[in-house]
User: Which sequence fits this backbone?
């Protein structure tokens, strides 16, 4: 058996035009650390549109913080109205163990939703040791992790569309 290695492609992955026109995505954004998460959202939406998703097919929901993302993700997944969900948030380490609890449980909850509902849920919740690093990852440039979230969603939707049930 021969294994193929994945090749990195520059730019935003493209779905087939017909698939992109029909794809419906929901973004769940935590409002805590709003300056950071709003920037992630902006760049994510831009990248999805650049990847062929009509803006009208992208719905954005907000929750107070990252710990609340999984409950809304579960509710949206149960609707069966979306082809993928994207979770955006920022957890910045403080002086207590709270950072680890929120980041870890958010990740676990999102994975549980994805597996339970057989739905791509892209996890782009920044977990950084300081605000400076979070701002760097959410900058108004091509390094913004919101772009990576959109690219992951598009790439996974493309791959899943190639697999027959």
Assistant:
């Amino acid at each position: 058996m021969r294994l193929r290695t994945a090749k990195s492609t520059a730019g935003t992955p493209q779905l087939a035009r017909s698939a992109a026109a029909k794809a419906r995505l929901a973004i769940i954004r935590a409002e805590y650390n709003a300056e950071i998460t709003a920037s992630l959202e902006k760049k994510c939406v831009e990248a999805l549109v650049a990847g062929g998703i009509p803006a009208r097919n992208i719905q954005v929901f907000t929750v107070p913080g990252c710990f609340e993302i999984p409950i809304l993700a579960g509710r949206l997944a149960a609707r069966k109205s979306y082809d993928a969900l994207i979770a955006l948030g920022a957890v910045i380490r403080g002086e207590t163990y709270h950072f680890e609890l929120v980041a870890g449980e958010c990740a676990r909850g999102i994975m549980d939703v994805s597996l339970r509902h057989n739905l791509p849920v892209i996890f782009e919740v920044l977990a950084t040791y300081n605000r400076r690093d979070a701002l760097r990852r959410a900058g108004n440039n091509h390094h913004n992790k919101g772009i990576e979230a959109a690219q992951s969603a598009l790439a996974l939707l493309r791959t899943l569309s190639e697999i027959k049930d």
User: Anything to note?
Assistant: The longest strand covers residues 84-92. The helical segments are 17-22, 34-50, 69-79, 98-117, 131-137, 145-162. Residues 1-10 have pLDDT under 50 and may be disordered. Residues 26-162 form a domain with the Rossmann fold fold (CATH 3.40.50.960).
